[in-house]
Amino acid sequence: MTAEPDGPQDRLRRFATIWSRSVYQVTSTSLTRPEFEEQLLPLAGRLSEALRARTFDAEEGRAVGAALVAAHCTDPEALSRSLDCVDAYLVLYCGEDGPQEDLRNRASRLQHAMAAGYAGALRERTLAEQEAIAWAAQSARSTVAEALHDSEARFRAVFEGAAIGIAIADLDGNMLQFNGALQRMFGGSEQTVRSRRVTDWTHPDDAPQVWKLYEELVRGEREHYHVEKAFYRPDGTVLWTNLTVSLLRDADGRPQYQLALMEDTTERRLLNLRLRYEATHDALTGLPNRTLFFERLEKAVTAGEGQRFGLCYLDLDGFKTINDSLGHAAGDRLLVEVADRLQSCATAPGEMVARLGGDEFVALTTGPDTEAEVDELAARIMHALIAPVSVDGRELTVRGSIGIVEGPAGERGPAEVLRSADITMYRAKSAGGNRFELADPEADLKAITRHGLTTALPAALDRSEFFIEYQPLVNLGDGSVRGAEALVRWLHPQHGVLGPDRFIPLAEHTGLIVPLGRWVLEQSVRQARDWQERYGGHPAGGPLRINVNLSPCQLTHPGLVQDTVDILERAGLEPEVLCLEVTESALIGADDDLLKPLRRLAEMGVDIALDDFGTGYSNLANLRRLPVSILKLDRSFTQGMQQFPADPVDLKIVEGIVSLAHSLNLAVTVEGVETGAQAEQLRILGCDTAQGWYYARPGPPERLHDLALVDATG
Q1: Sheet holding 400-408, edge to edge
Q2: Which helix (H) or strand (E) is 299 found in, with range?
Q3: What is the pLDDT of residues 464-516, one digit of tens each?
Q4: How far apart are alpha carbons 465 and 507 in whole angstroms?
Q5: Are strands 238-249 and 481-492 parallel, antiparallel or unpaired?
Q6: Residue 362 and residue 380: Cα distance in Å, rounded?
Q7: Distance between CA 258 and CA 159 in Å, rounded?
Q8: How far apart are CA 83 and CA 275, in angstroms?
Q9: Prior bond to 645 cis, omega within 30?
Q10: HSE-up of 656 (CA within 13 Å, CB side)?
């Protein structure tokens, strides 16, 4: 056993030695094998440097490929063996210090660049030889008799020594002469090649114009043509070539012969096909990937009149749980099984299945009648997922949500179609999953608008697009204004004024609710200070109170208490001016940790109101442990009091709640008061304060000041 090379130069030399031994046997060179190795050593160094360079440079690989042609390595087997050596040994001997996966990816890209450089150099050499041959053929017809022997000798040397296939035939297609390179390309005997006429060399993959060009050339209407053409070899295999056919005329200009030059591109074509397959298919499942799917979808949505398409967008339900609990290897095996099942569902003409990434798959069907076909395809997919998948001895249940888009070609682009399918799939998932839904333009528009608002939210706060309206809180006993609830609005540049129901859930989802809530609290407290400076308070004494809503996210934020204290101190207001409203649902089942900041605020003197009371299912007995001082009764309890006489059931319910609240020393505020009869009934029942359109709609802060002045002056 020999020792491994010690240093980088030793390893580079070893790589060059292996390379030269592999390629030397198929290289037309007068050099000895060691001399040939010295010729390859600089090329090996360039590959080594390109492999380890900070930035990948494909030009180095192309230069090495071109240098192989310059070194007379023109046999296609020389390129194939060179690429094999780079694939097997370059990283091993020249990249041991770097990340192996990255180095192997870079080595693969170097192979592609070498193949491209090799092909380009060989093509340039071919064209140069073609010009030399054409010149020799012309000279052969025009030279004087005494120079004919020398001319023919030169032509024969070029003809036989060329690395590309050359053939001369008459205008009837009979083979007159061909060189050894062409015979080796076809892999047959001389008689086998000579016995076939040019018109016998047809192939099913011939482009329609190939034989039209040929007919024009032999009629003298064309001097030459260049095409990519396939031929069958005697053993049934296919030879792909770059074929150039030129017309040779006699001294009088009449067509006499046809000259064909063939460059064997079979290996290069196979390499390109392999690269194309790898670029358009998913490595894990073997299905078409996003790139190929978009190509097919583009064709489907731009097909001619009368054509339709149907798209099923599938996302597995609960796949993340499988990955997290069993590991990604188990998740990959599950995806492979799902891919196989989906593939079996799309076998009809015009149907295909692809993997977009992760656990997302798509199935496409095309044709004149896809309205029923796409539903059937979705049903087949859902049925295929019913049977459990066995992974590592576990039976895993597979479920999926599918969004379906179907329609005529020519109306929408591929990106719009896929977006609609994605939105519809998430709608199916939101509805419980394990189902498929049809696309709905209105639902799509809502989802797109929702996404646009979510994206615009962060910048909206910086651009001061939010503002606050105030709705008065009125004392039911004497009708005086006691304060107001702050209600945030968004003045959107495109959609106009948006209420909190349109953007507060989005702000909570994105986490923006914390800075937005802090801004609302700052603005509201500052406004309360302005009211106090302008008016001083309500007739019953004390300042006008400001009510500010708190979201569940704000309740859990560690800076809630300190932010509130800082804002009140900067405004110079006492805590009793502020009332923080928390929804009943946010406090259902709340533990002591969640209630602790509210208790601290309540101990400071800040009122805590339990908003939307009665909409949840909390135990009424829990009220005594909550740090609240006000119950805000939901409007659903008082709707029956808008007319006279009031609904007796509603009266009893409200009466019971008011009695319970007062027994716990809690004040009761009622929302949604819209009529005088309703206000009077609530006053009789003992409710303390109310708000609603009967008194005033939400509006600018000046309106509250005007209402307060009216109350004060009678």
Answers
A1: 351-357, 360-367, 308-316, 400-408, 435-438
A2: helix 290-301
A3: 899 999 999 999 988 888 889 999 999 988 888 888 888 888 888 888 889 99
A4: 14
A5: unpaired
A6: 13
A7: 15
A8: 14
A9: yes
A10: 9
Q: Residue 146 is which amino acid?
A: E
Q: In what order do the strands lie in the sheet with 224-232?
A: 175-178, 165-170, 255-264, 238-249, 224-232
SS3 225: strand
The answer to whether 261 touches 74, Cβ cutoff 8 Å, is: no
Place of tokens 């937005």: 516
What tokens appear for 364 in the block? 């496409």
Centroid of chain to Cα 277: 20
The model's pTM is 0.52
Cα end-to-end span (Å), the chain: 111
Coil, helix or strand for 258? Answer: strand
- List pLDDT tens digits, range 607-624: 999 988 876 555 566 777
- Least Cα distance to 404 among 355, 444, 438 occurs for 438
Q: Do the Cβ atoms of 87 and 101 come closer than 8 Å?
A: no
Contacts 24+ apart (CB under 8 A), 49-58: 50/106, 50/110, 51/90, 51/91, 51/94, 51/95, 51/103, 51/106, 51/107, 51/110, 52/94, 52/95, 52/97, 52/98, 52/103, 56/106, 56/109, 58/109, 58/110, 58/112, 58/113, 58/116
Helices (H) and strands (E) in the chain, counts: 26, 21
User: Alpha helices of 354-440 — where are they, by DSSP H?
Assistant: 370-384, 414-430
The tens digit of pLDDT for each residue in 378-424 reads 999 999 999 999 888 888 888 999 999 999 988 888 999 999 999 99
DSSP 488-554: EEEEETTTEEE-HHHHHHHHHHHTTHHHHHHHHHHHHHHHHHHHHHHT-S-TTSSPPEEEEEE-HHH
User: Per residue in 278-336, pLDDT tens?
Assistant: 888 999 999 999 999 999 999 999 887 889 999 999 999 988 888 888 888 999 999 99
DSSP string of 154-221?
Answer: HHHHHHHH-SSEEEEEETT--EEEE-HHHHHHHTS-HHHHHTS-GGG---TT--TTHHHHHHHHHTTS
Query: How far is residue 227's CA from residue 243's CA, in Å, rounded to a whole number?
Result: 5
SS3 559: coil
Q: CB–CB of 711/480 below 8 Å?
A: yes
Tell me which residue has tokens 């799939």: 425
400-408 and 308-316: which strand pairing? antiparallel
State which amino acid sits at residue 126: T
Q: Are 20 and 44 in contact (CB under 8 A)?
A: no
Q: State how far the alpha carbon of 453 is from the alpha carbons of 423, 465, 509, in Å.
A: 16, 12, 12
Q: Determine the distance from the C-alpha atom of residue 456 to the mean position of all C-alpha atoms in its chain, rounded to a whole number.
A: 20
Separation of alpha carbons 267 and 111, rounded Å: 13
Residues 6+ apart with CB under 8 A from 436: 312, 378, 379, 382, 401, 402, 403, 404, 428
- How many CA atoms lie less than 13 Å away from 179 in the CB half-sphere? 19
